[in-house]
Amino acid sequence: MIKWAIIFAIIGVIAGVLGFGGIAGGAFAIAKFLFWAFIAIAVILFLLGVTVFKKVT
Length: 57
What we know:
There is one protein chain. Helix 1 runs antiparallel to helix 2. The chain has helices spanning about 1-20, 20-50, 50-55. By secondary structure, it is an all-alpha fold. The protein starts with a helix and ends with a helix. The protein has one domain (about 1-55). It is rod-shaped and about 55 Å long. Belongs to the UPF0391 family. Keywords: Cell membrane, Membrane, Transmembrane, Transmembrane helix. One of its GO terms (cellular component) is plasma membrane. This is UPF0391 membrane protein EPA99_06865.
């Protein structure tokens, strides 16, 4: 997921440099969403790993 966020950020930068403002804004919006979704999932899995899965084993 973080790989796709980086890809969309690069697409946004290239589109912005070439003058495609709408495409650049859309690509950055997708990149920002994917980045924060990755962070949220990573935090949830970390908390589950520290609490729930440690008790199971």
